Amino acid sequence: MPKQKINERLMRLVVSGLCPYEDPSKYEEELKELADTVAGVDQAEKQCKIFKALADVHRLRILKLLEVREMCVCEIMIALGLTQPTASHHLGILENAGLIKGRKEGMGLLQDCKTRINANFTRIRQRARHLNSPAQASN
User: Distance (Å, rounded) from C-alpha 103 to C-alpha 27?
Assistant: First the structure.
């Protein structure tokens, strides 16, 4: 945002009494510091990568399968009716987001959910179920 627009907005905060400082530039610094502390760009980008990876039906289904057990690409293809390029594409996105890891075994590559992310995914799923509950739907 251009500095002039920031200054205009800061003056509105001063006039409205919402700015706790006489010098609006101190308030600007405080707000920017707060944003960096609780919503840093690096952390937000990592989280965005994870949420983008979760924003696909096939990838969610793959994660649910991998919560149950390790699977090779062929098993995932058969279970979900995907072609090899499609399955590999989705697995690559999940691996790139740090949600799964692959390991070589014999001629194939086995995929497995990372335990640490798996726990977070379980919390996300529980929250999603709560949002879909009949009590929530009526609100």
Answer: 51
Walk me through the domains of the chain, giving residue ranges and CATH numbers.
1-27 (no CATH), 56-132 (1.10.10.10)
The conformation of residue 82, written as its DSSP 8-state character, comes to -
The tokens describing 115, both together, are: 């335990």
Cα(139)–Cα(50) distance, integer angstroms: 28
Q: What one-letter code names the amino acid at 68?
A: V
Reported as a pLDDT band with limits 50, 70 and 90, residue 125 is: low
* Residue (of 102, 89, 81) closest to 59 by Cα position: 89
Helix (H, G, I), strand (E, B) or coil at 95: helix
What's the pLDDT at 115? 47
Amino acid making up residue 66: L
* Whole-model pTM over 0.70: no
Report the range of poorest mean pLDDT among 10-14, 28-32, 100-104. Answer: 100-104
126 or 67: whose pLDDT is higher? 67
